[in-house]
UniProtKB/TrEMBL annotation:
InterPro entries: 4Fe4S_Fe-S-bd, 4Fe4S_Fe_S_CS. The keyword Oxidoreductase applies. GO terms for molecular function: dihydropyrimidine dehydrogenase (NADP+) activity; NADP binding; uracil binding. It holds the Pfam family Fer4_21. This is Dihydropyrimidine dehydrogenase [NADP(+)]. Residues 42-74, 75-105 form the 4Fe-4S ferredoxin-type domain. One of its GO terms (biological process) is uracil catabolic process.
Length: 121
């Protein structure tokens, strides 16, 4: 028997709760849609000084179908257009902490998606 292969087991610092203690714990945070404030809309703001131009925000936004981030052809830095929905996908994939912040929208978000309804005559 070889004694050099010892597996380390890390013990949790706090006791792990039982399943029965975790069930329904988040219910107090769940509310009805009518309780949401639709006036509190946000959009992404990219700090050009912190940006390392990795393109992760651009790829994520485009791959998800929003296409709200474009690249400046001269500086090659990303910028956020008015079509940003505030979904925070770019914020979540950015490798630089605080490079992308979610700021309150100055204009209300007007969705420009889907097929316009037009009569077929």
């Amino acid at each position: 028997m070889e004694t050099s292969k010892i597996t380390r087991v890390s013990t949790p610092k706090k006791p792990v709760p039982a399943v029965k203690d975790v069930i329904a714990r988040a219910l107090r945070h769940i509310g009805a849609y009518q309780e949401l404030n639709n006036m509190e809309q946000v959009q992404a703001v990219i700090d050009e000084e912190m940006c390392i131009n990795c393109g992760k925000c651009y790829m994520t936004c485009n791959d998800s179908g929003y296409q709200a981030i474009e690249f400046d052809p001269e500086t090659h830095l990303p910028f956020v257009t008015d079509s940003c929905t505030g979904c925070t996908l770019c914020f979540s994939v950015c490798p630089i902490i605080d490079c992308i912040k979610m700021a309150t929208r100055t204009t209300p978000y007007q969705p420009k998606r889907g097929v316009p309804i037009s009569p077929v005559c």
